[in-house]
Amino acid sequence: MPRSAFLVPLLLLLSLSVFASGVHGELPEVEFQELLGRLQNDPAAIASLRRFTAAPYTSWTSPDSLGTSTPIFANYTFKVVLYHVPPFVVIEDKEAEEGDPGNLNNTRTPGNGKLSGLTIDFLVEIGEQLGCKFEFLYPCKKAYYADNKRCSDLDFRSSAAALTIVKGGVESLLYSGISATFCSDYRCFAAGALKVTEEVIRDFFPTHPYMEKGFKIVVKAQEAQISFMSWAGPFEANLWIVVICEVVFVALIFMITEGYGTNPGLPQNKLGQFLDSFYWSLTILLMVADKAPTTHAGRTLVMTQLFFTLLLIAVYTGNLISFLLNKPLISPMDRFQDATEETAEKFGAWKFCVPQVQTSVGKWLDLQERLNDGLKFERIQALDLVDCVQKVYEEEADVTFYDEPVLLYRMQNNFYSRGKCGFPGGFCSDSAQTDETSCKCPSKDTLGRCLPTDNEWTPLKGNLITRGEVFNPFGYALVFRKGTVTDYMAFGQATQFVKEQHTIDRLENQWIPQMDGMACSTTSNTLITLGLENMQGMIVLTAGIAAIGLAIGLLEHFISVCVKVFPCCACLEKILIDIEAELEREHDHAARGDHTNDGAKRILDHNEEENEEEGEKEEEEGEKE
């Protein structure tokens, strides 16, 4: 057992003894000096003793605080390790094809515009508050640059590489501009879109988060398939139900105000009266009324129905324009839980694209598989987030996800602004061309003829959209090397002060696009019109109603022919006419208070008597012959 294990408790007891003796005015100087000499010769004991000593920390006083607010880091320079992650950090010539790999010579700065982004603007604001300066670096491996004369995408896009440089060690020496003495004063940190995770807190000193965001999924949405009822699209189903109820309601009022003999155009029996009233109400709605009202109440009702018709036409026409200009889109996935909940329709059947550079995507899927028994994601591998979103657009993958700000920025700048959207949409083999016309004819001769080209246009339909709520929330922070220096605490104070000044809100509005504000660069050239498929439902319904009318007409014609050809049908027609006449007489009697209702029986008895008389006459004529 090392001597420090005994010396430290002994020294503590001695300190208590000194304190107690000091109270009584007696100091054991000989014993204390002897123990102190032994302690000075044991570095391990001194290190153990320091653990009981309060560590100094760096504090900053904001301009709004009481007292002075002097810049505590005046004339201090911090080394900042960045990585390319728009819209947080945008590095110009990140491949270093023009030289200065890793920005060792500090040729890229916010001042000359070669470093930009939300985090860069935030650091400029922090530097002004703390009075410090920054030197910016980014990961670029020496060996790769020596072989290829350019920096690797896996380096300058990697947050893990930036953290490796800040942490130090043998692996950090593989990058340009990094030596064994790099950050020996602990005044260095990594910046970008670094999340505050358990691993980061364990190995580094992160500041207070300057922004809180989370993951968002992106899928490809297609136009809603045209259905049998597409013509009714400008109105919701509930509104059509209200229209039908209104027609029925008006028909019932017509029965009350115009029925029961008031209007000669309406039959007397209740069923026929309702059917005719409903037809009357419907024809007014179609502006071809088949009857005229005879009462003031009926005339008022007709005016009301015509006004309702006017409103209905205006609203339908207005909504039709909006319906044509804003085609409804259908997305395959509405939220991330559609892939993890067992009750979901396509549980475990989604193809997720996993970027190699953005390792947090794969880690999150691994976590979900551990938390959900039996869940196994089908994974499509890609280099980075842009490649993953491209695979979703080309329908090689169903969905991918990442930090919402980064995802929105990539969708706007790599897809919507480059024509990879819309109906029709697509992309060109030459990334400089954003539409089909320029892709197939990028240049012309003096006569205006297209020059030969190897460009190929791949047509695709659909829009990339984000869906669902933000999940796996996290915060972005500056990440310092872990050590005895506590400068990160002052940076955390300054971060909170900048947030309270709404600087971060302003930077978000400046750098992060919104999904609702994204417009396809090719949409404005597309003329949206109605096609036959849009109206096929209305055409079929019209044809069906016409067919019913035709069938009724043919039936009436058939009965008419039968009456003329077959005598028995003529007798039946006469009976039906007599019954109808008697029913009308009975209705008149009922209106006058005569409730005799055996008229139909008398008609049938009378017909039987007539038939018997005719039979007797025929027998007499036969006997005479």
From TrEMBL:
Top-level taxon in the UniProt lineage: Eukaryota
Membrane topology: Multi-pass membrane protein
Annotated PANTHER family: IONOTROPIC GLUTAMATE RECEPTOR (PTHR18966)
Protein name per its UniProtKB record: Ionotropic glutamate receptor C-terminal domain-containing protein
Keyword set, alphabetical order: Glycoprotein, Ion channel, Ion transport, Ligand-gated ion channel, Membrane, Receptor, Signal, Transmembrane, Transmembrane helix, Transport
Transport found in the keyword field: yes
Composition-biased stretches (Basic and acidic residues): 588-606
Gene3D superfamilies hit by this protein: 1.10.287.70, Periplasmic binding protein-like II (3.40.190.10)
Species assigned in the record: Hemiselmis andersenii (Cryptophyte alga)
Localization annotation: Membrane
Keyword Ion transport recorded: yes
